[in-house]
């Protein structure tokens, strides 16, 4: 089995209007039966959060895959969680110009990720955004990793904060999962309700069906256009990222 992956990030109209870059980022890798993907959402209040999001998503994916390549047997869940924590530490420690915790403030970004092997499936999550996994097209029974917000819906947690490990959450999913979707909170606005407890199939199910029918390059264009539609931009002015992956035959 393999994975077909389509992902896109678009700037929210609030950022575009001021000429600011998209502060969302995504990264994914697949190798030797391992699929790992991450979506990061940079904090609007942080000066270089776009880099923090790019660096975090890429570094963590690469570091975890290095661990897989160093062993012959796949890890159990405890070992895999240790690898993910270690990869996050590496991402934090390799941010440029960081001497102390205060320096990380300018790179603040959330992260929501997934790793699937033949034997294991696991979401890992810090902050808001959403992850969902579906089997047999039973969207109402999706395994969901919900957002975690702070004292208000506008506050959340970042992998760049001193106590990030207290907010790192793991959710197990079936290794036989057929569809995975990772998204920043901007895209979550029209896929689920605010706390992520209820999935709205009206957007994600047609997207899933359409992306199955076209090749990946056309899929990226179609997903970008969908995230950029006036009606979706009117729902939220935030940046929007959606990473979709569906298991396919080799």
Describe the structure.
The chain is of the alpha+beta class. It has one domain (2-248): Phosphatase 2c, domain 1 (4-Layer Sandwich), CATH 3.60.40.10. It is 32% helix and 26% strand. The chain is built from seven helices and ten strands. It has helices at 13-17, 49-69, 77-93, 185-188, 201-213, 216-228, 230-235, and strands at 2-10, 24-31, 34-42, 109-116, 121-126, 130-134, 143-145, 169-172, 179-183, 240-248. Strands 1-10-9-6-7 form a five-stranded antiparallel β-sheet. The chain has a five-stranded antiparallel β-sheet with strand order 2-3-4-5-8, with helices on one face. A hairpin with a 4-residue loop joins strand 4 (109-116) and strand 5. The termini are close together. The model has no long low-confidence stretch (mean pLDDT 92).
Number of helices: 7
Q: Residue-averaged pLDDT, rounded?
A: 92
How is the largest sheet built, in terms of strand order? Answer: 1-10-9-6-7
> What's the CATH architecture name?
4-Layer Sandwich
Radius of gyration, taken over Cα atoms and rounded to an integer in Å: 17 Å
- Write the element-wise H/E pattern from the N-terminal end onward: EHEEHHEEEEEEHHHHE
Question: What is the 3D shape?
Answer: globular
Largest sheet geometry: 5 strands, antiparallel
Which structural class do you get from the secondary structure elements?
A: alpha+beta
Question: Hey, roughly how much beta strand do the residues contain?
Answer: 25-35%
Question: What is the strand tally?
Answer: 10
Enumerate the spans where pLDDT stays under 50 for 5 or more consecutive residues.
Answer: none
Q: What is the fold named in CATH at topology level?
A: Phosphatase 2c, domain 1
Distance linking N and C termini: 5 Å
Q: What is the CATH class name? A: Alpha Beta
What is the domain tally?
1
Helix % is 25-40%
Within CATH, the superfamily carries the name: PPM-type phosphatase domain
């Amino acid at each position: 089995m393999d994975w077909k992956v389509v992902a896109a990030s678009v700037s929210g109209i609030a950022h575009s209007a001021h000429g600011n870059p998209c502060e969302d980022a995504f990264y994914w890798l697949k190798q030797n039966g391992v699929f790992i993907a991450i979506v990061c959402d940079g904090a609007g209040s942080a000066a270089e959060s776009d880099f923090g999001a790019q660096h975090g998503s890429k570094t963590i994916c690469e570091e975890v895959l290095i661990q897989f390549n160093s062993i012959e047997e796949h890890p159990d869940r405890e070992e895999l969680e240790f690898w993910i924590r270690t990869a996050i530490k590496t991402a934090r420690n390799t941010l440029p110009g960081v001497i102390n915790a205060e320096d990380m403030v300018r790179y603040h970004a959330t992260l929501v990720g997934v790793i699937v092997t033949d034997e294991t499936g696991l979401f890992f999550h810090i902050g808001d955004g959403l992850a969902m996994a579906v089997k047999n097209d039973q969207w109402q029974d999706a395994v969901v990793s919900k957002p975690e917000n702070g004292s208000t819906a506008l506050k959340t947690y970042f992998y760049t904060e001193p106590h990030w490990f207290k907010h790192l959450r793991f959710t197990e999913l079936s290794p036989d999962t057929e569809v995975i979707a990772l998204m920043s909170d901007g895209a979550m606005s029209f896929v689920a309700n605010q706390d992520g407890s209820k999935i709205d199939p009206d957007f994600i199910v047609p997207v899933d069906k359409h992306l199955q029918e076209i090749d990946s390059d056309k899929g990226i264009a179609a997903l970008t256009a969908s995230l950029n539609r006036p009606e979706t931009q009117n729902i939220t002015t935030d940046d929007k990222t959606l990473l979709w992956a569906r298991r396919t035959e080799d």
